[in-house]
Write a structure and sequence with these properties.
By secondary structure, the chain is an all-beta fold. Helix content is 0%, strand content 58%. The chain is built from no helices and eleven strands. Strands 2, 4, 5, 6, 9, 10 and 11 form a seven-stranded mixed beta sheet that branches. A four-stranded antiparallel beta sheet has the order 1-3-8-7, with no helix packed on it. A hairpin with a 4-residue loop joins strand 7 and strand 8. It is globular.
Length: 117
Amino acid sequence: QVQLVESGGGLVQTGDSLRLSCAASGRPFSVSSMGWFRQAPGKEREFVASITWSAGITDYTDSVKGRFTTSRDATRKTVYLQMNSLKPEDTAVYYCAARRSGDWRDWGQGTQVTVSS
């Protein structure tokens, strides 16, 4: 099992930037990928971005391509989500997740991101 703790959320204005962090502990060597998901009020949780732990290959949902960047620091066992040019529709609770054995098995507690217009 892997424990995940997110940080870095907050209240910003349209066009601002935020960087989320997700620190992993436990058995992170069993993790193949780390992902970012978000859930807005009244909506289902959606995929935002992911990064493979070993090679650093990234993937993004179309709505954040060119604005969000995910990265990882293997030494610190931490992944980041740099969010630029934020829009009100980016408002959500953001979660990080760890993929082990093909499934997103471990989740953080979430961090609120609110973008005001």
